[in-house]
UniProtKB/TrEMBL annotation:
Details of cofactor binding: Binds 1 Mg(2+) ion per subunit.
Transmembrane annotation, as ranges: none
Source organism of this protein record: Jingyaoa shaoxingensis
Record's keyword annotation contains Magnesium: yes
Protein name per UniProt: Dipeptide epimerase
Family: Belongs to the mandelate racemase/muconate lactonizing enzyme family.
Enzyme class (EC, first level): isomerase
SUPFAM superfamilies: Enolase C-terminal domain-like (SSF51604), Enolase N-terminal domain-like (SSF54826)
Domain named Mandelate racemase/muconate lactonizing enzyme C-terminal: residues: 146-244
Keywords: Isomerase, Magnesium, Metal-binding
Organism superkingdom: Bacteria
């Protein structure tokens, strides 16, 4: 089969509550959807959120990258030769990882449908009967006043979530207070992950994390405590606290991940398809993590079910992935799609449907000429 048509459209889904981090506040998922159609009519779907404060990609830049660079480069290529398509996708333009990710996901979806297999059974290094078909995700608690964060945390626990990812980064002592009050409210059995979203200096990070350690708040990990480009700062924090440090915005590429692993810029790696440019590069990072004995999380931006489903398939397939931060669909008020993994509170169940499983996307598409 060959790539015949590439089309783009947009979807907007309101969030249950505003999503607030140290970097931004968002009320809706507003994402670009890609549809790639083979010459036999089979369709593959991908998705990209405009996350300018993290990836640098805007709605306009994502569409322009696909319309003027990616689509002309890969149209009419043979889907049986997926490595050649991925090489062309990678080199047709620099950066623009979100645009590449949307197309990459649609291509993998299409390729797995050609093989008549669910994607996770094509991505794993393990035997087919050993891959995970059930995952557990955390739920993100946005940064707000302490009282509101406590209420949101209790509501999440009531919904069955046992792992909470708490957004902080708005002030050292205030951040300790937030985590203390949440821990007191939810009890000792709930796993707490802390995400600073680059919100601290290296000194603030060490001071704040040590304060949490002294109070025995039971923090599983702290994610991206300092700016993504402050590699020395990441090393400094990792070396000076007992709590595990998870690198997120510091890792976009395979090269970033290997440097973090080899030079101990963090203990753990958060792989997000929108940072890596899709599944192809993410698989390379998983290979490196398995070689170095480093555990990984598969995370997501503010994405809906299409691209998060691709992350679910990757998480299910790879043994280095021991954590899932794939709560994007849980943050949305509605699920407008048909098919794909089932998101039931903290549990995610993978069907045996071909590809990523999405069968219907209610979007008005425009075919790129």
């Amino acid at each position: 089969m060959r790539i015949q048509k590439i089309a783009v459209g947009y979807i907007s889904i309101p969030l249950v509550t505003p999503f607030k981090t140290a970097l931004r506040t968002v009320d809706n998922v507003n994402d670009l959807i890609v549809r790639i159609t083979a010459d036999d009519g089979t369709e593959g779907f991908g998705e990209a959120p405009p996350t300018a404060v993290i990836t640098g990609d805007t709605k306009e830049s994502i569409e322009a990258a696909i319309r003027y660079y990616i689509a002309p480069a890969i149209r009419n290529m043979d889907l049986e030769d997926l490595p050649s398509i991925m090489e062309k996708l990678e080199h047709c333009l620099a950066k623009n990882t979100s645009a590449k990710a949307a197309v990459d996901i649609a291509l993998y979806d299409l390729y797995a449908k050609m093989q008549k297999k669910p994607l996770f059974r094509l991505l794993g290094e393990k035997k087919s009967d050993k891959v995970k078909t059930e995952l557990e995700t955390d739920l993100t608690i946005s940064v707000n006043d302490t009282e509101e964060m406590v209420r949101d945390s209790l509501a999440a626990v009531e919904q069955g979530f046992r792992i909470l990812k708490i957004k902080v980064g708005k002030g050292g002592s205030k951040d300790v207070e937030r985590i203390r009050e949440i821990r007191n409210a939810v009890g000792k059995d709930v796993v707490i992950r802390v995400d600073a979203n680059q919100g601290w200096t290296r000194e603030e990070a060490v001071s704040t994390i040590r304060a949490m350690e002294r109070e025995d708040l039971g923090i599983e990990l702290v994610e991206q405590p300092v700016s993504y480009h402050d590699f020395k700062g990441m090393q400094y924090v990792t070396a000076n606290v007992e709590t595990k440090i998870l690198a997120d915005e510091s890792v976009f590429s395979y090269e970033d991940a290997v440097r973090i692993m080899e030079e101990r810029g963090a203990d753990l790696i958060n792989i997000k398809l929108m940072k890596t440019g899709g599944i192809h590069e993410a698989v390379r990072i998983c290979d490196a993590a398995e070689e170095h004995g480093v555990k990984c999380m598969i995370g997501c931006m503010l994405e809906s079910k299409v691209s998060v489903s691709a992350g679910v398939h990757l998480a299910a397939a790879r043994s280095c992935v021991t954590m899932a931060d794939l709560d994007g669909p849980s943050l949305c008020k509605t699920d407008p799609y048909e098919g794909g993994p089932q998101f039931m509170g903290p549990k995610i169940y993978l069907p045996e449907d071909p590809g990523i499983g999405i069968t219907k996307v209610p979007v008005r598409f425009e075919t790129i000429k």
